[in-house]
Structure formats: structure tokens, C-alpha cells
Amino acid sequence: MSANTATKKAEAGTSFPTRNDLAAETRTKAISLLNQHLADTFDLMSQTKFAHWNVKGPNFIALHKLFDELAEGLEEHIDEIAERTTALGGVATGTARQAAASSRVPEFPSGTHKGLDVVTALAERFAALGKTTREAIDTADELGDKNTADLFTQVSRDLDQSLYFLEAHLQG
Q1: Interacting residues of 31 by C-beta distance below 8 A, sequence separation 6+
Q2: Which option is the CATH number for 3-12+22-170: 1.10.3720.10, 3.40.50.720, 1.20.1260.10, 3.40.50.150?
Q3: What percent of the chain has pLDDT over 90?
């Protein structure tokens, strides 16, 4: 086991005392769910910034600005997800390396820089995260953690709106 893997496992199992009345088992499962989405969302944010920096073509400035706005929205959710994790007594495993090791978001396709190709790549990734976030709403609800379900509901709404902004460039 590498040092990084050992550190990650130790962090993931760490919990701190809390007066939160959710059962310890519920909190443990919610923390795991939140940390998975922290990794996925952090990865998507970094890929969106990559697109922001590297997009080329006649619609450069519009896409450059759009991608920056989308990344900023994801950054807000990253903070909310991490803070919910710690509010439940967990450790938010949210370094770049931790996110990269755990993310389910596909890697941004190498050599993709042309405007609409970049939009397509991001749309696929926003759609994928939207799908897993909707699944997380149901999982949190099944755990009886309404606050985490509500957090994921807001994330889902914003991901859907971001996907709409991206897809509008591909339609027409």
C-alpha cells in the first residue's frame, strides 16, 4: 500500500465527535457519499478551468468567460460539500491528488481545444456528474439525511442549468 493510499484510508475513516443527532452509521455513509462527490466535483471544476485556459476558436472570449463562470459555480459547491462532510464529523478528502485518485469523471480528452469540441467534452462531463448527483439525492434520502439530500438537490439544479448553457452552444 502506497503512502498516499494509506493516508487516504486513514483520513476517510477519521471522524470527530459531534452533537449531530444523525446515527453514527448514517453519518459514516453520508460522509463517504459526500467525499465521493467532493472528488467528482473538484475534478470537474479543474477540467472546466482547463477548458477555460485552453479553448481556441472564433468564439474564444464567450466560451472562455462561460467556462470561468461554470468553474466558479462548481467551486461554491465544492466548499458546501466539504463543509457538510466536516459538519457530520468527517474529514473532507479534497486535495487535488485525493480528487484525482477517487474521481469517476472521465479525464478531459487530450488534444481537445476547438470551441465546440471543448463544449461537447464539458457537456458530457456535466451530464455525467448530474446523473450521479441525482443518484446521491436518493441515497442521502434513503439514509434519512434530508440536509445532505437537499445539498445534492441544489447541486443537481445548478449542474442541470450549466448543462443547459453548454448544450445551447451545440444546438442550432
Answers
A1: 15, 85, 88, 89, 90
A2: 1.20.1260.10
A3: 85
